[in-house]
Automatic annotation (TrEMBL):
Positions of transmembrane segments: 6-26, 94-112
Similarity-based family: Belongs to the cytochrome P450 family.
Superkingdom of the source species: Eukaryota
CDD domains, per database record: CYP56-like
Record's protein name: Putative cytochrome P450
Organism: Coniella lustricola
One Pfam family per UniProt: p450
Binding site residues for heme: C489
Record keywords: Heme, Iron, Membrane, Metal-binding, Monooxygenase, Oxidoreductase, Transmembrane, Transmembrane helix
Amino acid sequence: MAAVIMLYGLAIVVSALILHSALSLLRNYIVARRIGLPIRIIPIDHTNPLWLAVDRKVLSYVKKLPGFLGDNSFTRYNFRAWEMYDRLRPHQEMGPAFIIVTPARIWFYLASPDALMECFRRRTDFPRCVEMTEILNVFGKNLSTVEGQQWKAQRKVIATCFNDQNHKVVWSESLSLANDMLAYWARQVSVTTTAEDLRTLSLHVLSGAGFGKFFKFEGHTERSSASVSANYKNSLQMILENCVLIMALGPASLYKVAPYLPASWKLAKLADICAAFQKYMTDQYEEEKRVTVHENTVGTETLMRSLVRASQVEALSTTGVGLSESEIYGNMFMLNFAGHDTTAHTFTFAMYFLAANPCVQDWLSEEIRTVLDGESKDWQYSSHFPKLKRCLAVMLETLRLYTVVPVSKWVGNQEVTLQVDGRTITLPPKTMFIPSYAAVQTDSKYWGPEALEWRPSRWIQEGGKPGHEQFNDIKKGTFLGWSEGARDCPGKKFSQVEFVASMAALFRDWRVDPAPLHDKETREEARARVLDLIEQDSAPVLLLQMLHPEKAPLVWKKK
């Protein structure tokens, strides 16, 4: 009898949830109809946490159903990063703007470059949705989680941290680490740890340029035992690798439950790691405060040092407000979180594209050999980085096809109007606004008939000589790799310097190819297999990434 009552109660709860969801969907649909744009309806919001855990698995079965049952709005638009697979197709069907309605929200998708740029300029009308970014407040509020005057104050301070002095550190560390990584790869028969090794490189660059902690590169099979400095590195790495869980629970919750858990449990370990990392940041903060008192102190220009100094200067100004201690910690975490996986995943995509395109490697090497001679320790950021445009073009082209962190915005508490290709559209409050990156960045109107092909040379003007070439003028709003407007990525130059320096070290004298899976596989077949892996096996985990790059081992050979 008790079991029957429980089942009856469960049925009532489930029915109530379904009814609430249906009514919410109907309400949002009625509101969306007033906008006057094409609408697609999906019964579950694609950001629903429970749905995110099963979306791909469930849809893999639903798509096998015949006809409309397997090919409809639910199967096309109801999973993470569906935009990357459909790219321009929805806008070809529905125009430059359309709406997706879910029980939770109204989603506005836009692929008009001019309208996109207007939205980026109107920062107060189209802010970031702080409801979705507040999980980044792991160690304190930061630039990604605040709006209004708080955002202006933080942006002003953080913008001063990314300067040429810091970029010189990024340049030299990237060259040194890339050389060590190349030496490790050259010793392997084939490399299955490309993605992991690139994450290590990116982590070490951040450690050096962010905190002044410098490490030698260690490949997957050459890890040494932990030392005091390695404990810091490992704690940062563990935090970044488990950031979803840490962001979901928060350090405060971890600290509360950890005493009641066995020490071997993951949550207990993460609590210890968060506490250790917090202590490290506190110690560094106190040290940098003492250092910045002495204006003539000479040392490495790290992000932490710049952040503390800029905050103190701003606090002492007549109109400025510096960052609080917790905001400095919050922004240091944000900069590490944003700068680690984003660059590492872009590196991985680029490495596999290059392995499948030997002609691009030759094109890249031609520039590097023209611009750089001698040993890498003699290569200079100020004189050499600006000349390595082909190296940067590889990064730009990779981000064009695989934007690792698409930025979403929303309409605030008041409705707003927007001009889209000569038509005035009124968007209701709380509407999510999604720039259609994957569509506008592969539109043949702006990128030519081979828009879906990975071809870095499209970024470079024809007729120039290596080292003296210029970038093509790209229409504003057709490339959004680092977002646009006032809220573009403050670490854009940081990531570019890291990428270009690494490419220069890797491809001046070496080349990379896919390792054949068997004796009969030709080079052309191996390269086609790698391209297929990129296209078919890429999806977001937290960020967009190649899921199983180890399935395509790579081989490094000296030219």
